[in-house]
Design a protein that fits this description.
The complex is a heterodimer of chains A (219) and B (226). In chain A, strands 4-3-2-1-5-8-10-11-12-13 form a ten-stranded mixed beta sheet, sandwiched between helices. In chain A, strands 7-6-9 form a three-stranded mixed beta sheet, with no helix packed on it. Chain A contains four helices and 13 strands. The two termini of chain A are 19 Å apart. Chain A has 219 residues and is an alpha/beta fold. Chain A has helices spanning 3-16, 88-96, 132-138, 199-204, and strands at 24-27, 46-49, 53-57, 78-85, 102-105, 109-111, 116-117, 141-145, 157-158, 173-175, 179-184, 187-193, 210-218. Helix content of chain A is 16%, strand content 28%. Chain A has a single domain (3-218), classed as Glutaconate Coenzyme A-transferase (3-Layer(aba) Sandwich), CATH 3.40.1080.10. Chain B is of the alpha/beta class. Chain B has a single domain (17-115, 146-214), classed as Glutaconate Coenzyme A-transferase (3-Layer(aba) Sandwich). In chain B, strands 1, 2, 3, 4, 5, 9, 10, 11 and 12 form a nine-stranded mixed beta sheet that branches. In chain B, helix 5 packs parallel to helix 6 (174-180). The longest helix of chain B has 12 residues, at 99-110. The radius of gyration of chain B is 17 Å and the shape is globular. Chain B starts with a strand and ends in a 12-residue tail after the last strand. In chain B, 55% of the residues are buried. The chains are: A alpha/beta (219), B alpha/beta (226). At the A-B interface, helix 2 and helix 3 of A face helix 4, helix 5 and helix 6 of B.
Chain lengths: 219, 226
């Protein structure tokens, strides 16, 4: 498998460990959707799709797509037994009201205050925030899933975000191909590093101050 | 009983410059027959309020691509590059609203509320120019109600009292939009007599509906993404 895909799977696997059995989770479009494939055996999570249902299932077989059942990315999906449908006002009441246990999103930048920038690059990419601002403000736990550095090799974890913010101070956990980092009141804590990296490499590729946990483990 | 009209007749009163809400999410739940009738009628300079602009030439995306929209309020335009182009060139004025705030502002209008207080957008560009309140130690933005002259809703079944059944994920913005527009036109795949729709299955109470149109494009121009 190509190394990039392996990195993505590593991130997805680590994030999936975080969910207790029965958690209600919203996964962002792209890399975060991989997380659903790596939930540890014996645990079941429910996925919310912010366009209006709980119980998001896998893609249907070819030819069995239903026009009335798409995910938040507009792709044909299925609903699992025990799922339910609702309208957008209910969906965002569920999100904003703190009833979603975890949201997993990608990031352009995240900083040591737990600020997140993931919805626009002024002058370049202005697609709109969709449901991201509500999800980050409302979900109980916000997990950022991303590669540690951008495609130019520059750190994405910064002292302070430079791009327009999606939300202020809402990020709880950052999982990258190199590290598992917790955002605390005292700053970022490096709790785990990937099996093929070193603390020095993680620090070198991070532009924010990292506090290394006393007991550091690997994933 | 609500009037059952042809699509052409139903959109007749939508003048250039009107404010129009179109329910749907990435094309799912868009009223294709009504959108086509509005394009054919030649309506221009519309003030469009919709969750997203779907895909080029698909559903509500057609109104953008056919140059019918002067101002757009939406939460996401990334899947229809024509929207971004028109925004960047200044041809179309675009206001981007967080999706939950979008739904709740529209609901507020229909529910007779003066606005909503939401934590969404605090500390971001969304708070610019808005009143901020600190209640119980938490900051909230005051977001104002959002209404429209017309709304387009797509139902699977509609009875002649206007009661609508919307299946699965097609509900999305339809309930709140039906509440908040002055004239709500529902396009239904099946129109039945009162009693033909189980009251327990009513997604939108008929009280909000102004006119009913038979759907002749049952989601046929929505290509569900594989």
């Amino acid at each position: 498998m190509d190394p990039k895909e392996l990195k993505r799977i590593r991130i997805a696997k680590r994030i999936a460990q975080e969910f207790p059995d029965g958690a209600l989770v919203n996964l962002g479009i792209g890399m975060p959707t991989l997380v659903a494939d790596h939930v540890p055996p014996g645990r079941t999570i429910l996925l919310q799709s912010e366009n209006g249902f709980i119980g998001l299932g896998p893609q249907p077989e070819k030819g069995k797509e239903c026009q009335s059942l798409v995910n938040a990315g507009g792709q044909a999906v299925t609903i699992v037994p025990g799922g339910c449908f609702f309208d957008s006002a209910m969906s965002f009441a569920i999100i904003r009201g703190g009833h979603v246990d975890y949201t997993v999103l990608g990031a352009l930048e995240v900083d040591q205050e737990g600020n997140l920038a993931n919805y626009m690059i002024p002058g370049k990419m202005v697609p709109g925030m969709g449901g991201a601002m509500d999800l980050v403000a409302g979900a109980r736990n916000v997990i950022v899933s991303m590669e540690h550095v951008n495609k130019n090799g520059a750190p994405k974890i910064l002292k302070q975000c430079t791009l327009p913010l999606t939300a202020r101070g809402e990020v709880d956990i950052i999982v990258t191909d190199l590290a598992f980092i917790r955002v605390t009141k005292k700053g970022l804590v490096l709790e785990e590093i990937a099996e093929d990296t070193t603390v020095e490499e993680v620090i070198k590729n991070t532009a924010a101050k990292l506090n290394v946990a006393g007991k550091l483990s690997r994933f | 009983m609500k009037p059952v009209l042809t699509a052409e007749k139903a959109v007749e009163d939508i003048k250039d410059g009107a404010t129009l809400m179109v329910a749907g999410f990435m094309g799912c739940g868009n009223a294709f027959t009504l959108i086509d009738a509005l394009v054919n009628k030649g309506a221009r300079e519309l003030n469009l309020i919709t969750s997203d602009t779907a895909y080029p030439e698909v559903g509500v995306g057609r109104l953008i691509c056919q140059n019918r929209v002067a101002a757009l309020t939406a939460s996401h335009i990334g899947t229809n590059p024509v929207s971004g182009k028109k925004m960047n060139s200044g041809e179309m004025k675009v206001t981007l609203v967080p999706q939950g705030t979008f739904a709740e502002r529209i609901r507020a209008k229909g529910a007779g509320l003066g606005g909503v207080l939401t934590p969404t957008g605090i500390g971001t560009a969304v708070e610019e120019g808005k009143q901020k309140l600190n209640l119980g130690g938490r900051d909230y933005l005051l977001e104002l109600p959002l209404g429209a002259d017309f709304a387009f809703i797509k139902a699977e079944v509609c009875d002649k009292n206007g009661n609508c059944f919307l299946p699965m994920a097609t509900k999305n913005m339809a309930l709140v939009m039906a509440m908040s527009a002055d004239h709500v036109i529902v396009e239904a795949e099946k129109i039945v007599e009162p009693g033909g729709l189980d009251p327990e299955l009513v997604t939108i109470p008929g009280v909000f509906i102004s006119a009913i149109v038979q759907s002749v494009l049952p989601a046929s121009n929505l290509q569900v993404r594989p």
